[in-house]
Fold each of these.
Amino acid sequence: MSTSSVSKGCFVFKPSAKKKKTLSLVDYFTDGCEGAENSEVRFKLCQDLWDKIKADTEVLQDELNRKILDSLLDFTRKCSSTPSEIPTAALVLGVNVPDHDMTFQSLSELLQQSVTPHVASVQAKECGALKHLMKRVLERLMDTVVTVDDEEEEGEEAEQTEQTSAQLHKSVHCSLGTLCDWYNTKTKVSTGTPGKKRSSPAKDEQQQPPVVIIFKDLEAFNPRVLQDFILICSRYIERLPLMFIFGIATAPSTIQHMLPHSVSSLLCIELFQSLSCTQHLATVIDKLILTPKFPFKLNGKAMQVLISIFLYHDFSVRNFIKGIQLALLEHFHSQPLSVLCCRKKEALLHMTQLSHRDVERIRQLLSFKRYVEKQEQQEQVNLLKDDNHLKEVCQRLIKDLNKYHKNYYPVLRCLHTLTSSLPRYPLGKQIRELHLICLEKNVWENEDYQTAMKLLRMLAKDELITLLQRCAETLQSVKSKKMKNALVQLEELLTKFKQLDTAVETAPTVEESFTSPVKNLQKKTDLFQLQKTLLEMNETRRSKKLSPFEVLRNEALDFIDGLVRSYLSPPESQTLNEVCYYSSSATVRRHLNATPRTSIQAALSSPYYYLQNDNLKTEDGSVSNAAPDICIAYKLHLECGRLINLYDWLEAYATVVSAAEGNDPDSDNFGKVDEVKHARFIQAVSELEFLGFIKSTKQKTDHVARLTWGGC
Amino acid sequence: MTALLQHPGYEEERLQRVAEQLPCREVQAGLLLSLMGQPQQYSYPSIFIYGHRASGKSHVIYQTVGHYSSSLQLPHATVSCVECVSVALLFEQVLLSFFGCDAASLLPRSPSLSDFVRIYKQQCSQSPAKQTRYIVMEKAELLRDTDANLLPALLRLQELVEDNITVILLSEIAWDKFRPNTGCFEPLLLHFPDYSKGELQQILSQDRHPSYSAELYSSYINILLGVFYSVCRDLRELRHLAALNFSKFCEPLAEGKVKETDTHKLWRNIEPHLKKAMQTVYLREVSSLQWEQMQQMEEKETGALRGLSAHTHVELPYYSKFLLIAAYLASYNPARTDKRFFLKHHGKIRKTNFLKKNEKTSNHLLGPKPFPLDRLLAIFYSVVDSRVAPTASIFSQISSLVTLQLLTQVSHDDQLDAPKYKCAVSMDFICAISRTVNFDIVKYLYDFL
């Protein structure tokens, strides 16, 4: 831009309106998106779905926390009785620190709604010294209240409160005494009975809301600071109804590690244990994943990645949900056919609106190709040629997929109910493990499934009946036709079992001889012995006739097996599964579980991968001599041992670089170190040091030590 | 015995009342009064009072100097040093209680000692002291951590402000630990000895329950002291315990099973209860509130309530467990022995060959040793049973273990290059952790070879 002014000066150029326009979320989504024509629809679908998931998880979180929060609230209400001790709630939350924020958020909201307006929460990292802790507490307590002040009060207090922010920085009035005065004026105004404060202590307790201070991460606090703070607070406890909540990530014994007896004797500590994060995850999976409600699904591998990140790395449910969000976004971003990943009605509608290109994409789908191959000749031609015919067929297929989901989850739950109590858990303790097995391949071909079935065929009668009853309960809530049929069959079986009771009485002698080994079995949990008995039982079965109970048991289990075989086939076998299932586990892993060192090494050893310069392309994994200096230096250092002689390294470097410059290998100057090369080499070496591959060492002069092991 | 407290210049009746409030501290109170002299007389510039916790230091001062309505009510300012996060706060509180808030607001933004002295003098000239003014500083040991000139200046504040003022320092630490190496004005030292068992008995018996006789309460205190005197001589704590357990003591009386005179039966009833209290509520394993609830419940139900230290189980992610195990091994094994434990073909090396002179003692007795990050990771990779990619989350787990205080970082936070750590968990803890991942840690510990 230019000005016509001749004089010198500063000119302000306001950015033009065009530039100012920020990209909306949709634009980001569309940018670089696969199959851009329907990207906006996909973005909307994706966002709706995510909003729903988010709302659901929040509700779920609240429900899970309700119990503990309720007991905490009770505690805060009743705790203002002990005069000499500060009521303290030790809230054990588990090591999944990222999840705690949400809990504390809802806790302080609940407290503010129902118990007291005076809630302040502090974190360790903002309270390095007592001064800061004090300041934070005062600021949060007074500020939060100031904002909800009515006019009249402001007249009285405006001066004081406005000053407090100024004075707090001066940290002159930064003492609990100030807080006390503030609290007194506050409660006097709200109750409207000044002067009668001390007259009726019983009444006062109800009128005086406690001042709650939440220490979000107790472990990270400086013990010294905490001790001093508690000492100060205990001096004011008679005038100020203080209360603490300690957020503890490890074990409650940390309190005793941090506070000496002289300080902990000032506290009246009560323990609150929150739900473990694995249980939390189980509920989230149960409500979010194992339900036909959400059309978006993860395939086995992607699911496995998310679960293993949870179990192996962080225990954080929040991160798990973030992972799902990432997968969701990636799916809608990269799969153009995800436009069909929505409710049945919408999906059918979208199907009719598909463009020719999208129809072609359907034809490219692996599952669809398999489907076409199975059809007759004429039908194959129709499917591949006629777009409209294909759309009709696909509408049916989408319906099938929907039905598959509706039946899959109830049957999965039934199977889990049956197998989760078996000794050694052949199909996993948690339903997520079973789900993973089923996603992987046909579960009935699995060896563990066979063992589970064998074990089930040895169950005692009452056990079996209770399990089957629980299965029936799961099926009851399902609306699908097939499941209703299954339920009817199951209930018939159950009635037969009950009729058996009367039948048994007529022939008790036969029964006894058979049930005895079964009874023994109940006690045994050892697999070896189980197998032994199993063999024995097989033999007896061969030799003797089956009892009516055993016949019935076999019938019931065959029925279950039938259900499994017809409904628990893996999603990959379903046509059009690519529409709903996100399968790129590598992307999820790369985004959520980054490997910085591997990427650095990849960049250094094959710079082409990042720079995309054809000159750098090499076949055998070696580095071209035209590569950046640091790559050459890196490659050369791989050939060295633990200690690297800098001079040798420089020589080698100079040789490589000379070759790159096209110098004649026979000339005198070849491989000579000039100043430029020297400088470039030094820069490359210091870059490597910065990346952590080498460091200077005192063992030998003019050597550096390698910090990584392994060579080329 | 109250006759001890006699001093000219104070009302006889008032002294009498003060003396009643100070059982077993008449000697100290009398000494203090004679040091203070008559109200209008100049007193000694600074007095240093020390004695253990709950030996009545603050109580005596409050009763004599002021604070309570029954006391002598002399002009005074009480400051708790723990509360004074900055000296400004200290100055402000002193000025506030002597001259009102106008004087306090005169203090500049971050006042120095001379600012304080200047303002004090200025105010003092307007309202000179008719009686000795007292500044009482509780927890005076914290003054040592503030500016170096503060403590010496306070000790001779009388000279500096040219006013009839006396600074009384209260501390649990003897004066020898205070003396700055540049030297200072020596205050008068006054020691408050611990209460003896008899004195404790006498003091505690005073707060008897109105509906029971004094003898009964006294015998109750006797029993209480019999149990607790060996572990706790803190008057405050004992008083708290006495209040908590008295209802249980009276239970058989209320039910009419035992007469008040039958001390033996009462003792038999309360003694196991008190022993239990010593292990729980005294250590704050359970809160006083819970203890009160427990007393009302039946014996069977109380078993369900576990103390704080009973919950030691910590759930950790899988790799965090192995990182912690690796950290433990690195902390307690000498680095030379890593080869022996983690290399496949280490050959047969006996422990005796390894032993150096100083290593004959158990490493567990010496405590954890610091180790660099490299060693931690090297052990981690050889200990964990599957191949683990060196992902960012492995590293972030190390730092979250540090925030959870299961590891401690030895080197400074700023040192990015080769940080050093120590493992901060106990043997029991690590054994429990390694059991959950089927790792036999004892086989890898040099001490148990």
Note: Residues 235-255 of chain B form the longest helix (21 residues).
Amino acid sequence: MSRGKRVLIRLAWFVASLLLASLLIFAATNLLPGDIANVLLGTNASAEQVEALREQLGLNRPFPVRYVEWLSGVVVGDFGTSMVGGQPVSSIIFSRLEISAWLVGLATIGSLVIALPVGTYAAMRRRHVDGVAVSAASQVGLAVPSFWAGIWLVVLFAVTLRWLPAGGYVSYWDSFTDWVRHLILPVAALSIVQASVISRYVRSAVIDVLHTDYFRTARAIGWTRSGAIWRHGMRNISISLLTVIGLQITTLLVGAIIIEQVFAIPGLGSRLLLAVTQRDLAIVQGIVLVLVWAVLLINFLVDVAYQFVDPRLRQEAT
Amino acid sequence: MSLLEIIDGEVTYTRRGEPFVAIRDVNLAIAPGDRVGIVGGSGSGKTTIARLMLGLVQPSAGEVRFGGRPIAEDLSALRRAASLVFQDPNSSLNPRMRVGRIIEEPLRRRGTPAEIATALEEVGLEPGMARRFPHQLSGGQRQRVAIARALIADPQLLVADEPVSALDVLVRAQVLRLIRDEADTRRFALAMISHDLTVVRQVCNRVVVVHGGAIVEEGPVGRVFDDPQHEYTRRLLDATLTL
């Protein structure tokens, strides 16, 4: 099968996954206990008032009708209006999506910057005390929740040393320096934990390379250990990295939701938690949908990237 | 003068926490242009001898000399002058590299298209194959690529570790002929590791028989094959003839 066909099949699965995810999210949020009409009107409202509001919000119409209407709006960027505040959900989502995207994107880059050298070092020195120590440290990192790492970073760098702010967010349009200063600790909290996971994969991929005949050949014909790793290891690691980034993106998004709370960052995660407490289904649905679609999109892109990174999948070149 | 010498070579590995002597008291000298076959059964220590020659394992006793100097003093001189071909081309070629990039590896710089084309043509491959990946070649073509890589930097010593045992019979004959012709033309010293005596007979002029980590017999191919002195050599020859 040609690469183009394989990409098309994956695209079809991706679109089907998007539709299925949207259906599940819509169903789940509509089956949640608690009636938005009751919440909006308070406990003193009469049954007639509640019924009237349900009618007004369209909650009495059949489920499939509401789903199709919601989905056709979503496709053109209309996620409905907030049931509590009345603002368009899309403006709420997009104003905060950028902040969360910076957080997750920078944390991904940060974790790779840490994990690549750490994992490679741990593999190359795996029979030495320092290599074992690095490996053990990354194992400990796996067990640390990002919010706990975040709290300790705040205690050390914000409270004790007073080098960085403990929380909040400043747009880079207002002050680039402050934007960077406000992001350092939350990005570090997410990166440290992610780097622990990714460095394990990097270590394992490098050890695989160290045992190959092509690595031995490179060594025997004069390449230094690090030179041979750079030449052969990085190509192999790229496949492992793609896999692990695809797998870890969900963890990273969940971590970002919690980290936004710890550092009082006005991102999608903190808005989602507020919407849940307010029973604002339109916002909950919208944000969860964006997060799930983001995960599906990244996994789709990883899948397509495999076709280009691994030459054994490039049948067309034969 | 010998190009490469192993003097009282011993290599000890650790196996499940216990020391294990893989080879002991190995004395072997290879002169420029020599074609030495190192034969023995599985676990006899022949591959360890090959690795010792290339400085890929450290001797626990004795020493290895290249050009008269201990390789411990100047390993890079050996690495610049030696090359190797492994048994399985599937694992000795990086599946994510194009053939051209694989072949230029010993040069430690980007090979020119002309250099790559010449290297490919010398082993009987089309220059256009430089753009292919290993999985797009047959087993015999892959081993030819491995040989082209081994020869591009004009080595003084080529170590071939079971270079044809992963290939089918017809391809095996072609690859052996290629190695023998290249050794004749370029006059490099060849150390060919094999469990198959017929392979050694076709290519080498001298044979070393290894058993239990020690050299039990050594001599010109004709003499060892026609008049084996050691019981183990006779058994190896009988096994070959029976087959």
Note: The beta strands of chain B are 4-15, 18-30, 35-39, 61-66, 69-70, 82-85, 157-161, 189-194, 206-211, 214-220.
